[in-house]
Amino acid sequence: MTPRKACIRVMRLLPLIISSRVVTLHEAMKEMESQRMNDHAIEPQAPPRVRVWLEATFWISLILTLWIHGTRINQHGLRGEEARRGLVAAEMIRTGDWIVPRQQGTIFLSRPPLQNWIIAGTSFITGDINRLAIRLPSVIALLMTVGLIYAYCRRWMGTGPAMLACLAYATMGQVLELGYLGETESMYTLVVAGSILIWHWGWTANWSPKVVWAAGYSLAAAGMLAKGYQAPVYFVASVFLYVVAMGQWRSLFTWAHFVGILSFLAIWNAWNVPYLWMTGLQNTIAMYHNDVAIRFNDQTWMTWAEHLIQFPLEVFVCMLPWSLLLPILLMPRFWKGAGRFREPLSLAIAAIVITFPSVWFTPGAHGRYYMPLYPLLAILIAIATEKVLQDSVLQIDLRHERWSSRFSNWLYTAAWQRYQVGFAVAMIVGAGLIGFGSKLTGIDAIVPETLHRLLLVAMLSAVAVTLLRTMKTAQASQFRVAVIATVIGVGVIHVGIITRRTLVDTNDTRAVIAEIKQSIPADQPLVSVGLVDHLFALHYRDEIPIVADIKPADDLDCEVTYVCFNPNRKIEIPHGVRLETIKTINCKRSKKSSRDRQVTIAKCVWDAEYIAELRSQRNGARGRSY
Known about the structure:
It is a single chain. Helix content is 63%, strand content 6%. The chain has a five-stranded mixed sheet with strand order 4-3-5-7-6.
């Protein structure tokens, strides 16, 4: 046996050796051979081609996702970095410069402009850079991700688990919060997870190797143009570990792989080279490096240790309620006879093992930074659930086993039923709080209509009853009903309560900013001392030039100018001017004011003698120049 084959054999034996039921290398080899024979018996050589667009569960998944994420897409105000994404797109349209992202005329060194291009393109359909134009691309990307997960899973799973996988991703807590917003996460997840899943889909379906590698690297290049090098790093690392573990490492040294690399370089450098030419090397490095460097500002040992403990828990919470099914993967029985899912299971584990340290060991990382891999975690959840349902129908005589073995078997085979019961209880508690404790919980302020509260109670109660009724059988149809009921329960809480709370608390500044704009004469431009809040700049519509300090107009013909600035930022006010504050606006997403998100608009009334002195000095300087 060659050293390479020995290494591959050890990698394949490692999970079995770790398992508590295999204690020697000889037993591990026998177990692996047994699993190989069993896998060959239950898994077809080539998974059948499935036309997912003809399946009702595919369209039900898309409709539920659209209902949950698209219901109030155009209602509550912009939040987070949404306005900044729209502002950069608006400046591209206004200036005609589609290469260099800018904010108030200054280079925006945060991320490449793919999302800004798409928002700008959407604005030509919506007619303006508004909420719909900013958020619609994210909703479309979310729907495409849901469809991709479903289609990918159908190669190895039934309609129920495929629906569970795609809807689990769509209704994870983090995705509910960010999925429909005009942030980068939804679109970035599509291209990062899509690069891995589509590559593996083509790899296992015997597509042309050139097409497989070109598709994966092209999507990785799109990710590079959307946010940075996390996309190509995740794709290359995941694929590398997978092909090495599967003993297919020679594929990395083929012309097809080289074609894929060329595809990546061609797509990425179509923007990167012009940007480098226009802005220089320093700005090009900063474009990719700035956001990453911020995460390492605090590098103390205490911060790092705290992050190591908290981050896995944070990701677990971000994926609720579906992350409660992940412990199934830790049960030894799950890995017995899991060969039917060998391909998707190997890919998902390889991708997670190789990528998770990139955020786990980064002190400033947040849960949303790992959202591009949530689809693969959703696939793991679906695999674990289907395996449990398959094994639960097997009749195993445990009467002569120890109580610990019987308890372990119950923990495993009843995992999905326990999840149904727990979710049903949560729905009943939620219905009770809405119906009888609305004043105590403050829900009556969010949902003041009694009829609406009764409707929410009825829907949550119906979800609970459905889950309790379907837990008695492991039939595929009942499982699909349970998945749909669970997703509807999540959707009712999100759309009926959480989103309405956001609407109650939202801070809509559009009308106030429009009123201020009307009060400023058309021939008097508004300038800002330094960068002004991006939400204000977007809603003001007109260009707001940046000035270093407050000064009269260059021509000195007017004795009044208008200026905006952050009132908490120290600025120098000349002795010859009197500031008359017009209004101070809170640009935070909620009505609670924030010192960092305030904008003061002021009228600068210049002293006539001061203006006359400046004119005299300027005229004298002109005379000496002649």
